[in-house]
Target: Glutamate-1-semialdehyde 2,1-aminomutase
Amino acid sequence: MTDQNDILFERARAVIPGGVNSPVRAFKAVGGTPRFIQRAQGAYFWDANDKRYIDYIGSWGPMILGHGHPAVIEAVQKAVLEGFSYGAPTEREIELAEAILALVPSMEMVRLVSSGTEAAMSALRLARGATGRKTIVKFEGCYHGHADALLVKAGSGLATFGNPTSAGVPPEVVQHTLVLEYNNLQQLEEAFALHGSDIACLMIEAIAGNMNFVRATPAFAKRCRELCTQHGALLIFDEVMTGFRVGLHGAQGVLGITPDLTVLGKVIGGGMPLAAFGGPRAIMEQLAPLGPVYQAGTLSGNPVATACGLATLKEISKPGFYEALAQKTRTLVDGLKAAAAAEGQPFNADSEGGMFGFFLMNELPQNYATVMTTDNAQFNALFHGLLDRGVYIAPALYEAGFVSAAHSEDDIAATIAAARDIFRKR
Ligand code: HOZ
Model:
């Protein structure tokens, strides 16, 4: 065996379940050996064979500036020299909180945590604590991390609650989770009509990034807001993926909707473990130490992570940043569409800011079930074709893609050319 990725995968599988620390990295959906990354710079990373890839996962979203941005490296290096972790408050946490609140007007207060899962789980507890209600509404295909109550698939009918999607989650734990079809207005209306007074919150990825890239229609998102207000439930936007990614003000800025609580992650840490949740003062003050809803963390507001996040937010707040990023992402998406059309392949794609998705079908899906009708074998062939040609997209058809400020016109053109070559040979 001479392939270094194969060698590392074999070693990894001996000591780490599946050889990876997060399942999708194992390439199980697409087959083959995961690439073990040894370094990254700008729009590229290099695997254990020193093969270079144009990186369209960007650590699943955080690397919006590309890898190794000089201003971010400088901030992190300075912070590291001052200490890794104190378990006591710092001025930098205040600075980051102030920076986030200035950019997300729906948030009056924010709590910093370490991962998106933790942020979503805490927002959920806060919503239940603040409303005194148990029921939560989520949508099939929206992923909010791996907290027990959120690992749920739809039950057998609308009025029934969900079933666990993971072993180790007792049915009792998800008995208050209602799972609805994304963009299905009728189901949404019925759910609130039946359960409205019990609903603590409705949690949604308003631009979903965990069933590839699927938008909530403006009418659907608006109705989510109206029904929550009408029934005294909290509307939670999970913006772990979309926050500072689809635009400077997230999906809520794109849709013009004000959620009650917002869950953030990924870009706010610039690649370091950092996430957050926040909302109006009256709700956030329900959290310990002020209120009865408990939440805590040794690494919350970590000084190195906050330095990385602050430096990243400073760069992306510069005038014109999102216009340029969105234009570049559109060029990629339009180029892929044109390449597929030229070779007579069913294909469609969409993007917002620096986030995109493509589908091997002519329509843009509106929900998870439609996304999952994608031809898996065709997707896998495209994935491996791109990988061979030095282009790394997410190794599963239900994931979104990410473009960074470091991707050049040449990178985009090379990606489109690689895809066209694959389409042609089909
Ligand atoms: N949560 C990511 C998929 N939507 C995967 C994260 C990772 O493997 O790094």
In short: The longest helix spans residues 321-342. The chain has two domains: 4-68+319-425, 70-316.
